[in-house]
Amino acid sequence: MPLLQCIGELRGTVWLYFWIKDPKPAYVPVDRDPKRIEKVERTLFQTSDDPAQDEFWGKVLDAIKTAEEFIRPKLKV
Fold this sequence. Notes:
The protein is built from 3 helices and no strands. It is mainly alpha-helical and 77 residues long. The protein has one domain (2-74). The longest helix has 20 residues, at 2-21.
């Protein structure tokens, strides 16, 4: 479940990135808050050299680790 949540968050972030970057007519409100743009770009472009230090990618790695811990005992070697 945590991995599916990460996928949903990534999907929403990709949509938001293109919504912010695409020019809109003046009557279409677009929230171009610098903090929001920075968070979107950090999520998409992994600004840290260590993914575990990155907020979103750290969650992804934790979700993968949880899934691995659940599945590994069930695998036959």
